[in-house]
Amino acid sequence: MWVSPRPALLLLLMGVLRHGGASGLLELSLGKFRNVLLNQTSPVEAVIRNIASNVTVVIFQVHAQQSDVVISFDKTPSVNSSGVGVDRGLVSVLRPEQTVCTWYLRALAAGQVLSTAISIPCMERDPIPGGCNLEFDLEVDPNIYLDYTLVDIHIKFAPANLGYTRGASPPPCDSGTGQSSRWRLRYDVYQYFLPENDLSEMVLMSHIRKMSGVQSVKANGIKMLTLTADDKTNVYFSSLPGQGVIYNVIVWDPLWNTSAAYIPVHTYACSFTDLVDNCSSLSKLSTKVFFTAFAVLGLFTCFFGHRFWKTDLFFMGFIVAAFVFFVFITRVTGLSYDVRLILTAVAGIIGGLLLVVSWWRFGSVLLSMLVIGLVLGFLFSSTLFFTPLGDYRVFRDDVVFWVTFTCVALMIPVLFVGCPRILNILASGIVGSYTVVLAIACYVYTSLAYITLDLLRRVLNNYFSRAYTNVPFQRNDFIILSVWAMLALSGVTVQLRRERSEVPFPPHPYLIWKRERERRSTNVLDPSHHIPPLRERIHNKLLHIKEFFQKDQPAGERTPLLL
Fold first, then answer.
1. Any coiled-coil ranges, and where (predicted)?
2. For the chain, first and last CA: distance in Å?
3. How far is CA 518 from the centre of its chain?
4. Which segments of 181-284 does DSSP mark as H helices, in order?
5. What local confidence, expressed as pLDDT, does residue 6 receive?
6. Which residues fall within 8 angstroms of residue 299, CB to CB, at 6 or more apart?
């Protein structure tokens, strides 16, 4: 991933306002962005003048990439009049005849912080974001609060209130639930993806502007869901470490058909400051080694899986055993990730060998094809739920999801029950080529890895069902999807052409061995019939070795002369 140079160098190119030892003044215009360089010691005074009389509320907001900034109404911030974070804003409710608004900005920690600021006006009929705040510190809080884990992202915000004229009292928040109260408001949650593999500050600054105003949010964002006043104002999304995402909420008043936007918030679901596993190097070394070796085996199986039948069985058995064991050991133990991955690799090898041994001993094509068909079926079902179909509300229910998922997965071996060779070639080509995608994901971000990763998250986490799993699909994903499709198509085609004149499956090795043994025991003309049994041959060999170490006897007469 590419990370931008120091902000100061960029500011020289952009002509951004710089502030030295004295406090600086930042003149703003409504609806216009300004980039500003902040520090801890010298607060910046942001001022808007000549505000029109039809504007009743001004929403001022500031954004930085990774360093917190402090925004306040006063030079000395207090808890109830300031906000701290990388994406923060304040609502200024205008008094009659007021034409000037002032806010103060500074960096929370030492060092310079590149930020961008904007002020957005609201009219008297526009709903006020966060106007019915009962949870956070500000009286009117238009901010979206975000926290993340490696599994999911959680955003929450305060309910909005109806708009009102200057000098009037705000409408009561809980006086009723009719159409004349704030309960008629609707909340549309939007998501916007930053360019993949780009962690630069300037990219964020340019794209955050597309998610600030109502019209720009509707034009550029992806509408994920709509909440009513009866719903809780918090939403969960699947976490995409290393991928920049911006979220915003538009509150809509259906009576007046007016809207207002909250303060957009962004995340990369990773840390810029950690020395290990930071945003620039997310994959661990153990993960890279595991999936690179897995991809080598998968690529071989993609083109030669049916010809090398035992290798194909080992590959499919490895997948099943490794997946089941990783889920089990993660749920019941607290071992570190590296230890779990090593044990998973060992369990996968054992599972693959067991499937090969079961084929050698019992020769059941049905059992082997059931395993192979389930692997292909689970990949097909995971791909189906990777599409927008997976975000349908009905699949929030775990019972509905898993029943549907299993039925789709079982459909594959059922459809191909009459042509097992075709099923095996399709499975080895498609599944084998997908391991290359997983290996690429260890080095370059691609959303295609979440086809199986989201399934694993849902198995391991009881509450992942509440998360929306939408992912970006950009240039890298199209390239890698083309590589996957090309490898799968090539592998299937090569195997079909090579195996069309061959027997569908190799003969049962154990039966061949038994038949050969019986033939040797009954056919006296067969030279192998006269070969001594294995026990006798081992005994003779040991005697030969024993004689080799015995001392030579002295020459001459060894018995007494007869008288």
1. none
2. 105
3. 57
4. 201-208, 214-220
5. 46
6. 432, 433, 435, 436, 487
